[in-house]
Amino acid sequence: MSLKEIIKTAKTLVADDKGLLAIDESTVTCNKRFAESGIPQTEEFRRTYREMIITTPDLGKCISGIILYDETIRQKKKDGTLFVKAITDAGIIPGIKVDIGAKDMAGHRREKITEGLDGLRDRLREYFQMGARFAKWRAVITIGNGIPSRGCIEANAQALARYAALCQEAGLVPIVEPEVLMNGEHTMEQCFEVTEEVLRTVFNQLYIQRVTLEGMILKPNMVLPGLTCPKQESVEAVADVTVECLLRAVPAAVPGIAFLSGGQSGELASARLNAMNVRFKSLLPWALAFSFARAIQQPALEIWHGEEANVSAAQQALYHRASCNRVARRGGYTSLMEKTQNDNM
Description:
globular; TIM Barrel; alpha/beta; two-stranded antiparallel ribbon
């Protein structure tokens, strides 16, 4: 695929007020969530669950791209149709998670480095041939006593940049995901400082590795206080500081920013995204979109519970959350949308 096509795909992923749906949980993570809901942890149940998601009626009205996992991109619907074909037929672009997870970083206690660069060029070529048109790599940064270190930030930023360059070489749009984790008691101000430093370092490395910014999507965290911080900030405050941080660190050439949910509830993630678009959409050089996983999936998972009889209701819940986020991109989301949904269930 030419660079022109890569740039076109990147723009399409954040066009029409749509966003990304991440169903790229590893087998271990997916099984853990199944166990929490009393669902058998088997490949067939994982396949059935993901078929339920990708066949949700009208999902393409809200979702521009779906991020898959290596197991999932190889799976088929019960009728034998490849998932990739089903997704494409729904007007959605298939994507793939390509990192192999965050591992303990040597010499940096309590910090992680994401691995998966070895053999990545060949894997990207295979995924492109299978129909993927974008990829994702996640780095995790923890705020704590004495961390994050410069060593951790720089190592993860370099890995993200090398991954992104390989993606564009293979014809894939890189989703660059440096996540400053919500875990901890840090303040919103501390999160701002770390997030800005991380983003500046990532874009410096992207420049060094000659990544074309117009052909990528940034997937960052929102600027939030830690989950156990005594002071939890208002939706409007989060919107203000998040956009301020992004304006300081993200070049205008980037077509879109698709936030991760990072443990936020679906309703709160939608409300914060909505506030950003209400207050700043007309003033920003890039689109503010979403790339949520649990914030869209969780209600559907709880309703489905592994039972065929619950598929329709679960799909309605999934579509509702996706629709809420599309409306949030337009700045029209309100809590009344949740009440209406609850009344209909």
